[in-house]
Amino acid sequence: MTASRVLVLNSGSSSVKYQLLDMADRSRLAVGLVERIGEETSRLVHEPLTGPGAAGGKRETLGRIADHEAALAAVAAELSADGMGLDSPELAAVGHRVVHGGTRFTQPTVIDDEVLAEIRNLIPLAPLHNPANVTGIEVARGLRGDIPQVAVFDTAFHSTMPEYVARYAIDAATADKYSIRRYGFHGTSHAYVSRATAALLGRPVEDVNVIVLHLGNGASASAVRGGVCVETSMGLTPLEGLVMGTRSGDLDPAVVFHLARVGGLSVDEIDSLLNKKSGLLGMCGDNDMREVLRRAGEGDEAASTAFAAYVHRLKKYIGAYSAVLGRVDAVAFTAGVGENAHQVREAAVDGLAELGLALDLEANAVRSPEPRLVSAEYARVAVAVVPTDEELEIATQAYALVTQ
């Protein structure tokens, strides 16, 4: 029996998302989520998608799950109940989402003690994410240390950016000392969507230039030339770039000095303001695009202004990345907002006919889980809606590495 299954783990500070996939046919066997780890109200939702357990649908367990070790033990028990336990000889690898890989990790990497130590060393660059990623790796290694554990890094896809793009225009010695450069994030999504867009067009990925717009609560744009990222909107952290649910995106750096000197805010207060209390939430009090659109439709001025700012930033990046790429074959919308908010797509493309962009408004208004084109037939540049699949991308990269 050839081992072809990959368990994908996305460990957060108080949650674990997971999927078990069979890479023989790229099918999902089970999906689930453990949330509120460490609280009395912990919750595990597990859904087997194949086998005898699938007929029963989702299973929900409520009650305290003390830590990540207990969480993964509970996940293992649920999988075992469906005959897909972690002790299965069919399990080829565990793939871990790791947010920050710095400059060292530019490819999926089998985790050993040295690699794990390096991921720990990168915690200052991703203090909210890498610690939880490390915890998930440590626990999974304890459960199945005999099979490869593979780290797939959010930053890796963007490591191909030219040095003059990745560098900020600050003192070089200071930048090098503190590892200050543009890294970019959402890399697994941008990698998957750029390839899926080429497939949708029926062309080799090497021949396609695409602007990918990953629009969720966090949002980022990338310019991908022939499958290779040449520019992305997020930088040293996920704060830079587009207007997001709670993050400001691009900002005059002097705003930070002004808030400290004039407002008397501490560094931590400014950090919280820009990451957790800005973006759509800061402008109108809602970070859910559905609510913003509803309120704007009812004439709410704050919501209308927030939506206009969101769309204006999108247009700026589409225009800028059109200039960077020189030739654009497609603009692809993905993630929660990009896939589901047809009003965002319509507003972002409106007025960009000179760049070759035009929508088929009827096609754009249709909701579908399938990748699809929503551009007008006469448009020079395709507009695509491509549901992202970061878990499949992680599993694909992990399985390719361990089977080489």
Give a written overview of the molecule.
- The structure is a single chain.
- The chain has 404 residues and is of the alpha/beta class.
- It is built from 15 helices and 14 strands.
- The protein has helices at 68-81, 113-121, 130-143, 163-166, 172-177, 187-201, 254-261, 267-276, 279-284, 289-297, 301-325, 335-340, 342-349, 361-364, 390-402; strands at 5-11, 15-22, 27-35, 43-48, 59-62, 91-98, 109-110, 149-153, 209-215, 219-225, 228-232, 330-334, 372-373, 382-385.
- The chain has an eight-stranded mixed beta sheet, sandwiched between helices. Strands 11-10-9-12-14-13 form a six-stranded mixed beta sheet, with helices on both faces.
- Helix 6 packs across helix 15 and helix 11 crosses helix 13.
- The longest helix is centred in the last third of the chain and has 25 residues, at 301-325.
- The chain is globular, with a radius of gyration of 22 Å.
- The protein starts with a strand and ends with a helix.
- The model has no long low-confidence stretch (mean pLDDT 93).
